Amino acid sequence: MQELDELYKTIQMVKSETECEKSPIPIFSFEGLPGAGKTTQIKLVSEALTKKYGKSYYIDLPTKSPIGKIMKSLYSDEQRWNEVRIQSPWLNPIMISADLRLAIKRAVEEGTNYAFMSRGVLSTYYYNLDAYDSDENRAWHMMQEHMKAFYMPEAIIFMDIPEEDAYARVVKRNRGPLRKMDQLEEMSNDKIKLQNYLAKMPDIPVYYINAVGTEEEVTNRIIEKLERHL
């Protein structure tokens, strides 16, 4: 099974001193607060770029692969999952890395030229760092060892929006109770946290996109940056 093969390869990379090879196609990771417009803009940007640069592929981790389904099943029981990730902080980074690698393999098989990922790399750190250590810098260093097989993006698009605007968008679209991460105070803390993560990734180009304006205006801002990499 290719899932087992990819998981084995991922573990071997993590255990070895060798660096992960670069993704065979460019990956662009859209990051930012809830309500910033990441999913909407991925769709609009993909439609616009396909006409000029060929077909794109969308990745939402965890995916619908067998590995992704295992992780979604674990996430569904929050209390149990927190126990598991604290006991085995390496589990999620390794499984998500394998899941991403499988997604890119499918993308290549389908003849796509580049991929878009929503909250891919930053979310992986966001949901796992505290399982390693209470000191963020120490935890980052430890987790990096388990992220060696993760395909890092060609560039990161950070959808930059005031927390108040993001909160208003979330409230407008949400019909049920807000998640903790959707609360205004939490958004303010998370924006600082995400920007701190980005500062720890100096080798990846980061484009801060003003996400306020019409959808077309924001789309054009993003395309102008991405075309440098296509």
Structure in words:
The protein has a five-stranded parallel sheet, sandwiched between helices. It is globular. It has eleven helices and five strands, in the order H-E-H-E-H-H-H-E-H-H-H-E-H-H-E-H. Helix 1 (2-15) crosses helix 5 and helix 9 crosses helix 10. With 230 residues, the protein is α/β, with parallel strands linked by helices.
Strand order of the largest sheet: 2-3-1-4-5
What is the helical fraction, as a range of percent?
Answer: 55-70%
| Uncertain residue ranges | none
Mean pLDDT: 93
Short description:
The chain has helices at residues 2-15, 38-53, 66-75, 78-87, 91-109, 121-126, 129-132, 136-146, 163-173, 184-199, 215-226, and strands at residues 27-32, 56-59, 114-118, 155-160, 206-210. The protein is an alpha/beta fold.
Layout of secondary structure:
Blueprint: H1 2-15, E1 27-32, H2 38-53, E2 56-59, H3 66-75, H4 78-87, H5 91-109, E3 114-118, H6 121-126, H7 129-132, H8 136-146, E4 155-160, H9 163-173, H10 184-199, E5 206-210, H11 215-226
Parallel strand pairs: 1-3, 1-4, 2-3, 4-5
Task: Provide the descriptors you would attach to this structure in a database record.
230 residues; alpha/beta; 5-stranded parallel sheet; 11 helices; 11% strand
